[in-house]
Amino acid sequence: MSAPPPSPPPDRPAVSVGGRWRVARTLLALTARAQGWLLGLLGGALALALALLLSAWFWSASPQSLAQALGWTADWLADPTTGQRPLTVEGVQGALRTGGRVERLLWRRNGLEVEVRGLALRWPADLWPALLLRQTVAIDTLAAEHLRVHDQRPDRRPEAPTPPDRLTLPWLRQVALPLHLDTLVWEDGSAVTVGPIDAHYRYGPLPTGTAPGLHHTLVLDRLAWSGGQYSLQAQVQAEGRLELAATLHGQLQGPHADGAPPLPLQARATLQGQLAGAQATLQARLDITPSLARPSSPNAPQLQAHATLHPWDPLPVRAGQLSLARIDLASLWPGAPTTLLDGDWAVHSSDTPPDARSPGVALARIGWHLRGELRNGRPGPLDRQRLPLERLQTHLQWQAGDWHVHTLNAALAGGTLQA
User: Fold this and answer.
1) Kind plus residue range of the DSSP H or E element containing 191
2) Burial class of residue 3, CB neighbours in 10 A (0-12, 13-18, 19+)
3) What is the Cα–Cα distance from 211 to 195, expressed in whole angstroms?
4) The pTM is what?
């Protein structure tokens, strides 16, 4: 007996055109409503962010905003374990929007102490919008009455520095920063005091028609130290070969003759070369001559020095020459003995081995030659701020970690020395 034929599938109910339209209209309504909710959330978030920005902007103009911002910074820098705060601020006045004054600011960490007194800060009202929107920082006034740096950090074993690939500042495109210091005191065993100091620092592209790319530029208009006045112009590329050019000018006082007034001297030092790459080379030169404002004489003090430097080598001085004529060290460096030096010196070394990455290893593996003659027209005992040396002639060699004396003739106060 054969199986009955299969029954046909039941017919699906037909959907009318009107029903389809109602479903589509419902979906469109839900989509529009979701879009409205989303736009409302976004608008609320933008309104909240705008309200916060406006609140911060108005708060930044309040007289207490600068003190509050520095206080929050000090709290944020505090050690979470001990609670010690490396930053201390006192006597803060002014607004965060335009600047103010800080009577005392102290930073102390790991043996380094930096204290600033009488700090004055002024910047334009659009500093913060320019920083956020144009990545630009322009300060009108950065001045301090007294800056003291006390360095008690433990000595570290010197290592050869690593050549930089670039010297660009993170995120920023342009920086303009003036600086004025009445007094700077550097304490590191002995104290060195300089001041007043006036300087300007700029970062960014140079004016049209000059070298392309970003540059750091430092102009030191005035620096007073030990009775002399100095100025400096320095510029270095932030990218590429990192070309460096720096020129220092100085006006100082030197000896002229016994009983005569001091002779004004002028100093000029230059440093040029590139910093990029392990084989970077710099040329340094120093000249000290009588000032052009005074007529020179055959007995006027003069100093000429030249050196070839490899800044990333463990021992950067590769070769150098020095010529002296009637030089008084006391006129060049505070606390130095009074002298009247004449002479010529030369030094040169062999290439540093590539694997010598510390000064100790480099000293043990390279060779140095030092030749020179020195005459002192004003010898005397050290307790009278004189140098007990009349004449010195020598040829020394440093090889494999030892000195080798080829020639040594010295006339000392009260005797001679030969080797």
Assistant:
1) strand 190-194
2) exposed
3) 33
4) 0.79
